[in-house]
Amino acid sequence: MRLMELVRKTQIEKNMSKQEKKNLGNKPKRQKITIGSIVEISIEGLYYVYAQILPKSLYAFFEYRSKEPIVDLSCLTTAPVLFVIPVYDYVITKGIWLKVGKLPIRKDLEILPLEYIYDNTSDKYSTYNCYTGKIVPSTKEDVRGLERAAVWAENHVEDRIRDYYNQVPCLWLKEHYELFPESLPKKISMGANS
């Protein structure tokens, strides 16, 4: 076990900035948001998942989990992406999720996705472009498959990841599931018995 920890520390140090190396061994109180950085997230102490910091406060969360922290981050270069969503800056700057290295941003993540806005009082949809800040009227079909425009807190993201792996609906996506029932996790229904 000790050898694995030493190997992991060496691998992580290769990918770390000077400040991250300075903080190694101590949980940093503050970190800078660095595009391309990989963050490690412990889900209830049961397993680790990883995300990459993208521009515009967006994070790509990978469909990759492990019982132990990973040593070689390159395995994330081919991991499927679960979702891309904005996360509050404090999650990184206050060290809630720790940066463990940095990778080039993959081609499939270079163009940031549109998000949708739903106005339940008028039952109208719009798309939001985070690059330009433009909001464009759209149809339900136009926004199908997009993430809802919202900034996420760390506990809500962790709930969403946990629920994904447990194949249960995420509480924080309730209205999204009502709008797009096909997005419910497989084998799960929102029927009276659930």
Report what the structure shows.
There is one protein chain. With 194 residues, the protein is an alpha+beta fold. It has a domain at 2-109. The chain contains six helices and nine strands. It has helices spanning 2-14, 18-23, 90-93, 140-143, 154-166, 174-179; strands spanning 37-43, 47-53, 58-66, 81-86, 98-102, 115-119, 124-128, 135-138, 147-148. Strand 6 (115-119) and strand 7 form a beta hairpin.
The total of helices stands at: 6
Distance between the termini: 42 Å
Molecular shape: globular
Strand content: 25-35%
Classify the secondary structure makeup into a structural class: alpha+beta
Radius of gyration: 18 Å
Largest sheet: 5 strands, antiparallel
Which stretches are poorly predicted, pLDDT < 50 over at least 5 residues?
Answer: 1-9, 15-24, 188-194
Strand order of the largest sheet: 4-3-2-1-5
Q: What is the N-to-C succession of helices and strands? A: HHEEEEHEEEEHEHH
Mean pLDDT: 84
Count of individual beta strands? 9
- Share of helix among residues? 10-25%
Key features of this structure:
alpha+beta, disordered C terminus, globular, single chain
